[in-house]
Amino acid sequence: MSIDRDTARKVAHLARIRVEEGDLDALASEFNTILGFIEQLQEVDVEGVEPMVSVTPMRLKRREDVVTDGNQQARVLANAPDAREGFFAVPKVVE
């Protein structure tokens, strides 16, 4: 697949990037280079290769997925202009 000047103009427009007319050929060339890299990657045989998220084998720290209040209610409400019974107090807006 090859990107021409008109396609580069359309992609720039869709991406909301202002590209001067004189720079469209260079942009099209860069797009073609990127597509060439992608074609090279598609030729790589990845059969049997496990997906990974890092080049170093490490496990993420895990915690139990439990809902808590964070034990910070007093600290959060300390900055409130008006707090009552453990909640933010706001003016009534609906009658």
UniProtKB/TrEMBL annotation:
One biological process term in Gene Ontology: regulation of translational fidelity
Family membership: Belongs to the GatC family.
Lineage top rank: taxon: Bacteria
Source organism per UniProt: Histidinibacterium lentulum
EC nos: 6.3.5.-
NCBIfam families: gatC (TIGR00135)
Quaternary structure annotation from Swiss-Prot or TrEMBL: Heterotrimer of A, B and C subunits.
Family annotation (InterPro entries): Asp/Glu-ADT_sf_sub_c, GatC
Keywords of the record: ATP-binding, Ligase, Nucleotide-binding, Protein biosynthesis, Transferase
Matching Pfam families: GatC
SUPFAM superfamilies xrefs: Glu-tRNAGln amidotransferase C subunit (SSF141000)
The keyword Transferase is assigned to this record: yes
Function: Allows the formation of correctly charged Asn-tRNA(Asn) or Gln-tRNA(Gln) through the transamidation of misacylated Asp-tRNA(Asn) or Glu-tRNA(Gln) in organisms which lack either or both of asparaginyl-tRNA or glutaminyl-tRNA synthetases. The reaction takes place in the presence of glutamine and ATP through an activated phospho-Asp-tRNA(Asn) or phospho-Glu-tRNA(Gln).
Catalytically driven reaction(s): L-glutamyl-tRNA(Gln) + L-glutamine + ATP + H2O = L-glutaminyl-tRNA(Gln) + L-glutamate + ADP + phosphate + H(+); L-aspartyl-tRNA(Asn) + L-glutamine + ATP + H2O = L-asparaginyl-tRNA(Asn) + L-glutamate + ADP + phosphate + 2 H(+)
Gene Ontology terms, MF aspect: asparaginyl-tRNA synthase (glutamine-hydrolyzing) activity; ATP binding; glutaminyl-tRNA synthase (glutamine-hydrolyzing) activity; transferase activity
Name listed for the protein in its UniProt record: Aspartyl/glutamyl-tRNA(Asn/Gln) amidotransferase subunit C
